[in-house]
Amino acid sequence: MIKKQKKLISILIVGLVWVFVGCSKPSIHEKLSKDDQTLSYISEREKNFNNADYLDLKTEDEALEIVKDKYKLSIPKSYEQFKEVLTRTFDSEGVEAGESKYSVFSKDGELEFRTIYPFYEKEKLRFITRVSLIYEFLGQTKQVRLKRQEVNVVSAIGNDPFLQKKLYPLTQDIAGIMKLPEGLTKDGIAGYEKQIKELQDPIRNDSVAIVTNTVGINENEELAKSISAIYNNLGEFKEVNAEISDNTK
What superkingdom heads the lineage (predicted)? Predict the structure, then answer.
């Protein structure tokens, strides 16, 4: 009798294990590398984001309280790392950081946490830098993920010698945070430099990739990453943009 009861209990336990395994959701990130998994985020979420705007928040703590406590979202380590790189790069050589501005807004299934870092030279605006985290609600699976991470630097003047001087070190630092291979970054910078030197006509209203892993990428196994130089309508180098995109399915 006791043996039969033990056998029955064992069968029930095995059955329950299979039930739980069968009910658990497979992660869309399971094929990502360990490095990319540290840059990604996905969690359960029952409801879509409500349309809301929290603009010009006074402190970062206030913004983080909305993102983490109200919406129950996680902030990746890369956020602090991007901030540190921007401050180290531009708060130097007579250029000083101004007052940061924070915003959180949501619409149409996306929520963006945006931080603006202005930099001044003798009270004159020199650079506007931005770090944005964009989260996406996945209605079919009742989940939320970190869809994009963006870093943007805009100079107040075209062909800014300070920005040109900082471009390659900045690219290397951001690429390191994005977990891009050093060889790919080195080759990308060399290719960009060669392309710019060989130009016959100026680049106008367009961007040129400095480093990217998007060529031939399997988006279910790798996050899309790019760092680009952006030129204005006068053909002046004006802006740097970096992005990590999660397009896994």
Answer: Bacteria
